[in-house]
Amino acid sequence: MDWNDIESGWTGFTASAKQQWAKLSDKQIGDTLGRREQLSLRLQEAYALSRDESEREISEWQVKQAPPARG
């Protein structure tokens, strides 16, 4: 899935992000507004990761995402 799709539909992905990165609060995840760079910074802070490590984690999470169901 393209990151632009994730960012534009971020509210549909926050539960999955919270499940993946439990150390981040709902507010921290929500406050990123789906901006990859902001999410990366939050992961670096919460998990003591390097930038490369946080980007790798985000990429691994990204490929597992499916478009949110439309109702």
Description:
It is globular, with a radius of gyration of 11 Å. With 71 residues, it is mostly helical. 62% of the residues lie in helices and 0% in strands.
Topology order in helix (H) and strand (E) letters = HHHHH
In whole angstroms, the N-to-C terminal distance is 20 Å
Total beta strands: 0
Overall mean confidence score, pLDDT: 94
Largest sheet: none
The CATH class designation is: Mainly Alpha
- Assign the CATH superfamily: YjbJ
How many separate domains? 1
CATH topology: Protein Yjbj, Chain: A
What is the global morphology? globular
Structural category is mainly alpha
Annotated CATH architecture: Orthogonal Bundle
How many helical elements?
5
Regions with little confidence, pLDDT below 50 for 5+ residues: none
Give the percentage of residues in beta strands.
under 5%
Helix content: 55-70%
Q: Nearest-angstrom radius of gyration?
A: 11 Å
List keywords for this structure.
globular; Protein Yjbj, Chain: A; mainly alpha; 71 residues
List the helices and strands and how they pair.
Layout: H1 3-8, H2 14-20, H3 26-31, H4 36-47, H5 51-63
Quick gist of this model?
By secondary structure, the protein is mainly α.
